[in-house]
Amino acid sequence: MYHLDQYGEEYHETLGSYIGQPSCDVVRKAVLAKVAGEMKAMSSSRYKEKYAKSTIHLQPEPAAQPDGGAGLR
Fold first, then answer.
1. Cα separations in angstroms, 49 against 15, 40, 44
2. In a 3-state reduction of DSSP, which class is residue 35?
């Protein structure tokens, strides 16, 4: 699963979630809609962070582990 996020100095917003890596066209359309004010965030949180790393980025979530992440073999 991938999610598209926007970070600011005092906030984080999830703009989209995708099963499988989305195409560049899908991500571009979502980013342009957000910039144009035509898209609302799916979720958001507010906090105090002095330095934001980037404004919008696509980040994969870690793959689910068959053992639930316990490290069992």
1. 19, 22, 14
2. helix
14: which residues sit within 8 A by CB, 6+ positions away? 3, 4, 5, 41, 42, 43, 44
Backbone angles phi, psi at 68, to 5 degrees: 75, 15
What pLDDT, on a 0 to 100 scale, did the predictor assign at position 73?
35
Instruction: Identify the segments of the chain with pLDDT beneath 50.
Output: 69-73
pLDDT at position 56 is 60
Longest dimension (CA), the chain: 49
Domain ranges of the chain: 2-60
Half-sphere exposure of 43 (CA within 13 A, CB side): 4
